[in-house]
Amino acid sequence: KAGVTQTPRYLIKTRGQQVTLSCSPISGHRSVSWYQQTPGQGLQFLFEYFSETQRNKGNFPGRFSGRQFSNSRSEMNVSTLELGDSALYLCASRQGTGANVLTFGAGSRLTVL
Amino acid sequence: SQQGEEDPQALSIQEGENATMNCSYKTSINNLQWYRQNSGRGLVHLILIRSNEREKHSGRLRVTLDTSKKSSSLLITASRAADTASYFCATDSGGSYIPTFGRGTSLIVHP
């Protein structure tokens, strides 16, 4: 069974640009969550999508957005990038919103210059 | 914001020794999980313990949960160099079951 796939793995952007990250969950998993990991703040929850609907949202500004498609694949977008957005963005899937165990992808490393 | 906080922040031991990491949290939980992360990679689930359980084992891993003290510990017995990684506890509470992670313990096992 294929794992959670995130693309791209690495990317470099400049301040003010926008970025879109993609996540393909494990087959059969309908819930996709996104986390931001930085050395200073640790792992911070961004949002969760289930059946194309945002079910839960963390405490991030509106520049961070996401969506989920009918095949459960998810994208997150960050607009007007700031230096502080440099981070490892992790996607995780689980079977449903009541399931507990998350399966993580390898992450997308974003560097903002 | 972090619900769980791991202690110590860093731990350095020799191969064959046991490693113990602790996690404290603030509010009542449904479940507590431990995850491992190798440098710059995604997290891997290790073990889940429910709020009504006190101890669980998985191979060389032993997790305890004390809900009265709002704390958990992860014991890795007979550690190996391959155990070198960061270890995170994650708790979920309420109806969302969204795991909230601590900042992690960085474990280095010297061969």
Description:
The complex is a heterodimer of chains A (113) and B (111). Chain A is mainly β. Helices cover 0% and strands 53% of the residues of chain A. Chain A has no helices and 11 strands. In chain A, the strands form 2 sheets. In chain A, strands 2, 4, 5, 6, 9, 10 and 11 form a 7-stranded mixed beta sheet that branches. Chain A is globular, with a radius of gyration of 13 Å. Chain A starts with a strand and ends with a strand. Chain B is an all-beta fold and 111 residues long. Chain B contains no helices and 11 strands. In chain B, strand 6 and strand 7 form a beta hairpin. Chain B is globular.
Quick summary:
The complex is a heterodimer of chains A (113) and B (111). Chain A is mainly beta and 113 residues long.
Give the arrangement of secondary structure elements.
The complex is a heterodimer of chains A (113) and B (111).
Chain A: E1 5-7, E2 10-13, E3 19-24, E4 31-38, E5 42-50, E6 53-57, E7 64-68, E8 74-78, E9 87-94, E10 103-104, E11 108-112
Chain B: E1 4-7, E2 10-14, E3 19-25, E4 31-37, E5 43-50, E6 55-58, E7 61-66, E8 71-76, E9 85-92, E10 100-101, E11 105-110
Parallel strand pairs in B: 2-11
Antiparallel strand pairs in B: 1-3, 3-8, 4-5, 4-9, 6-7, 7-8, 9-10, 9-11
